[in-house]
Design goal:
Strand order of the largest sheet: 1-2
Number of helices: 9
Mean pLDDT: 85
Radius of gyration: 19 Å
Low-confidence stretches: 1-6
Shape: elongated
Order of helices and strands: HHHHHEHEHHH
Strand content: 5-15%
């Protein structure tokens, strides 16, 4: 029975933390906290990329692979996995679009449409300026939607593979969690005292 309980805790931790990330992103979108929105989206991609990886850490490849296999498969965006990784580096580390990958050339910067602004008009503007080889555009809401759809696809896929599912759940056990006194008492099998 302890193995079953631990597996259930891992599953709960996985879904609770993924939902929590999504709710945080939605709150930032609603409050128009644009930098925080993008930082959280990129962190959320890092998180599921790490869950999908075979290693204990979340290297560049885990982010890029997850974006390629899930995020961009779920929803088309006008950017590549490497461009999204470069944007992630800029936003997560400096809250800017500047990253080593972009400044080195060959990787376009991502400019963001936010709120009611559309990504396509901004993309056309960069094309008219002759900057489409330097800059591409993503709408923050589209990036979030792609992450959500990618997560659904990822979860459906791991549910079909017991070995992979077990590895993901083991990693999910490492998530930070908020346990109430009641949760701890229940787990330990002791009655909660008021």
């Amino acid at each position: 029975m302890p193995g079953i309980e631990r597996s259930k805790m891992s599953e709960d931790s996985l879904y609770r933390n993924i939902v929590s990330l999504g709710l945080g992103i939605e709150a930032c979108l609603e409050k128009k906290l644009n930098i925080s929105t993008l930082i959280l989206i990129y962190s959320a991609i890092d998180t599921v990329g790490w869950l999908n990886s075979k290693g204990e850490e979340a290297p560049r490849e885990s982010f890029i692979n997850w974006v390629r296999d899930y995020l961009l498969t779920a929803k088309h965006l006008e950017c590549t996995p490497l461009e999204l990784y470069a944007a992630r580096c800029g936003f997560v580390h400096t809250a800017t679009s500047e990253s080593h990958l972009c400044s080195g050339g060959g990787v376009r910067r991502i400019s963001y449409a936010i709120g009611d602004a559309g990504a396509q008009p901004l993309l056309r503007a960069f094309e008219k300026l002759g900057k489409s080889d330097e800059v591409t555009v993503a709408h923050a809401r589209d990036l979030y939607e792609a992450w959500k759809l990618g997560v659904l696809y990822f979860v459906e896929e791991i549910d079909k593979d017991p070995i992979r599912k077990k590895l993901v759940y083991e990693k999910a056990n490492n998530f930070y969690s908020n346990l109430t006194k009641s949760d701890v008492s229940s787990f330990l099998g002791v009655a909660q005292k008021d």
